[in-house]
Structure to design on (223 residues):
């Protein structure tokens, strides 16, 4: 019987944020343009929609750096609401995974910041009209905001993302290798993350560089 494969301890990769490290292509160009347009938004907020891993959180971080905004995660929205209500200096908030947040709290947060002349940016996988058990008062307000969608990656973006994700793990890869990988994987952001993670782990286990023969071997076992 073969021994179970021992994978190395998963260490966090060094992810580089900032506007200059966001890869722009036709699938996300509109979203980037809206972030760059702040504070000249026609409404009091913006909704970024897109599949998991598409860069919504990255763009939210870029916007917070520009606006001085406060980041709010859905699991912390009640505590964050108390903080925002109690501090009139807070004028901007970014709510990640807003579709998962308590909607009563989200409505109060929206009303509070709008009454101060502030702005909000929301990230979600789907537009508010498709949120489960949507609160009508909240959804009507959010539907009045600009909604910009990030689509699934095209060839150019997928290759760029693979290069960046490998680089975040301090792994250098050739254009030929990236092209080989991208033509044989599911074309989603999450698949790119998983492929890079798996190949990096296999490289460490085998104590060898990532090559086309190794990728073929890993994909044969995995896919």
């Amino acid at each position: 019987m073969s021994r179970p494969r021992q994978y190395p301890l998963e260490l966090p990769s060094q992810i580089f944020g900032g506007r200059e490290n966001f890869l722009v292509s036709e699938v996300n160009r509109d979203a980037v343009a809206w972030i760059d347009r702040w504070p000249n938004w026609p409404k009091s907020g913006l909704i970024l929609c897109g599949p998991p891993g598409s860069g919504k959180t990255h763009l939210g971080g870029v916007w917070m750096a520009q606006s001085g905004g406060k980041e709010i995660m859905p699991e912390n929205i009640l505590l964050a609401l108390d903080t925002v209500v109690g501090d009139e200096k807070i004028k901007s908030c970014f709510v990640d995974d807003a579709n998962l947040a308590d909607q009563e709290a989200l409505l109060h947060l929206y009303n509070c910041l709008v009454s101060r002349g502030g702005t909000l940016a929301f990230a979600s996988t789907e537009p508010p009209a498709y949120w489960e058990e949507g609160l009508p008062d909240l959804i009507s307000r959010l539907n009045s905001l600009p909604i910009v969608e990030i689509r699934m990656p095209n060839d150019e973006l997928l290759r760029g993302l693979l290069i960046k994700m490998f680089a975040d793990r301090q792994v250098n890869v050739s254009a030929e290798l990236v092209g080989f990988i991208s033509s044989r994987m599911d074309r989603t952001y999450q698949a790119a993350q998983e492929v890079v993670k798996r190949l990096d782990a296999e490289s460490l286990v085998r104590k060898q560089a990532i090559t086309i023969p190794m990728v073929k071997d890993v994909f044969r076992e995995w896919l």
The mean pLDDT is 91. The radius of gyration is 20 Å.
